[in-house]
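Tokens for Phosphatidylglycerol--prolipoprotein diacylglyceryl transferase. Go.
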Amino acid sequence: MLPYPQIDPVALALGPLKIHWYGLMYLIGIGGAWWLASRRVNAFAPTWNKEKLSDLVFWVAMGVILGGRLGYVLFYDLAAYIAEPVRMLRIWEGGMSFHGGLIGVMLATWWFGKRNNKSFFELMDFIAPLVPIGLGAGRIGNFINAELWGKATDVPWAMVFPTDPQQLARHPSQLYQFALEGVALFAVLWFYSRKPRPTMAVSGMFAASYGVFRFIVEFVRVPDAQLGYLAGGWLTMGQVLCVPMVLGGLGLIAYAYKRQAAQEAV
């Protein structure tokens, strides 16, 4: 068993002002995505300046934060937030939904594209390889917060989390998700998008790959206590939400290549 590194969730305290690691992880994710986007933007939109790119990153970041928070409220714990609405503002305590954030990003992308003569999927294909940076940083934030831990296990790298009332050795599922949703997903999308792909294909690869990685990790991650297991006692809400992502992603890839072949045959 490995000892859990006791990291104070508060990175910096200046009197009553407290800066949490969880919030800093979001800044790292957004900053990293902006940096990578700035290196790739010339191939995507040669006429764009830094201001245009910053606008895109800003609206996507708003989609992540607002969509992620609202998605968690709606998908995972609606009754608790209705009972205490002020909890919605306590983002530093955790409680963000990837699937809600994805919907927020899609809406922000659609809005931005309509005003900048870019199609929805052109923008989504550009954004998709940037997303794993934020996903990976967010999972490190979960680990520092000692939240979203895994099931009890006897594997040599198991940890006892201070927030676990049972104090059992558990899978550090946050680190599994960092490795898969952050590192592995970044590698898949980076190498896949290095060559020209038909529009929609990179978006489809993102959806399918993330869905598979998340579905796998959910088998060792403890589901949210207020929901538990669904579908006969073995699926989690995260897995249920990933199924349409995988199917939709594969469908997008197939359609993208089929459409490209049809266009080339004309």
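The first strand starts at residue 10 and ends at 14.
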